[in-house]
Amino acid sequence: MNAARRNEIITIRGLNKTFGSGDTAVTALSGIDLTIYEGEIFGIIGLSGAGKSTLVRCMNYLEKPTEGSVVIAGQPLESLAEGELLTARRNMGMIFQQFNLLMQKTALQNICFPLEIAGVSKAYAMERARELLSIVELTDKEKAYPAQLSGGQKQRVAIARALAANPKVLLCDEATSALDPTTTRSILDLLREINQKLGITIVVITHEMSVIEEICSRVAIIDNSRIAEIGSVEDIFMRPKTEIAKRLLYASGRLGEEMMGERCLRIIFDGTKTSSPVISNMVLECGAPVNILFADTKTIDGKMVGYTLVQLPENDTVVEKMKHYLDLHSVHYQEEAYHV
């Protein structure tokens, strides 16, 4: 569904967050403007210390912004009294990297806990908890304690607990960072299924581009407390505009420092062309080799897309000939200098 046709569920305008004051003040967020739509899976990515976890805590007012507006499901959080804010937070479930389960309670009791705090009857809480255990495929673990569960099972219980109060939004703060790749994929599959079946908006906060590419439709990249870039995952994967986006795509320096400043060409495959050997043919046509630095392909929104990053020859005439060849065959590309 086109995001432009959806209703806004999270609207953030002019958000600033500063910790401390005077000479010791630290700016965690600056000038954040963000719109997230009902029913989408939205990603927020950045390196450690960029401000992404502070942003998600400002979304539910666990951290009160220094300046700016946060509107959730039509409610401006800054205008709510404390009791009203607690009620509004029930619209926002949250899951964490370290699961945050109560170790002395069973899986069933952990899921019941937020419902009991909200004053729901014990009978209904248990009925709802069992329903959620079924959704996360842990019906046989209701009597198990967290110490008896694997990391993936703990996170499934945490997801069930976050869904207990029927939230409209699920905030996932580094929810897969403590998990192995196979378990990460199973958790992301579960989140996608929850989004599709229950219509819950999901916000994924992560430092891993692979998580964003796997599950999100749009993404905001945070760098130095600001939003550096925002757009569809496909657009940013194919045509990153900022250095931080390129750095995250290249997995924080996988190419090595020896490539710093090298003149490169990103050759883009957007799924619209046949699978002809573009680079091989370009090399043969132009009579000069290229060094392939990095290549990646992804299935995004059901379409295979990808790019290859090649180091260009030093001869400018040959470089122009290569670009002319790509233009002639309607192959998209971007010239850029690589920085780690």
Strand proportion, as a percent range, falls in: 25-35%
Helix-strand sequence: EEEHEEHEHHHEHEHEEHHEHEEHE
Termini separation comes to 36 Å
User: Which class best fits the helix and strand makeup?
Assistant: alpha/beta
Give the mean pLDDT: 86
Number of helices in the DSSP assignment: 11
Poorly predicted regions are: 252-260
- Gross geometry: globular
Q: Using DSSP, what is the number of strands?
A: 14
Q: Could you write a compact summary of the structure shown?
A:
This protein is of the alpha/beta class and 340 residues long.
Q: What are its keywords?
A:
about 350 residues; alpha/beta; six-stranded mixed sheet; four-stranded antiparallel sheet; 11 helices; globular
Write the layout of secondary structure elements.
Elements: E1 8-19, E2 26-37, E3 41-45, H1 52-59, E4 67-72, E5 75-76, H2 82-89, E6 92-96, H3 107-117, H4 122-135, H5 151-163, E7 169-173, H6 181-198, E8 201-206, H7 209-215, E9 218-223, E10 226-232, H8 233-238, H9 243-249, E11 263-269, H10 278-286, E12 291-300, E13 303-311, H11 316-328, E14 332-337
Parallel strand pairs: 3-8, 3-9, 6-7, 7-8
Antiparallel strand pairs: 1-2, 1-4, 4-5, 9-10, 11-13, 11-14, 12-13
Helix pairs in contact: 3-4, 3-5, 4-5, 5-6, 10-11
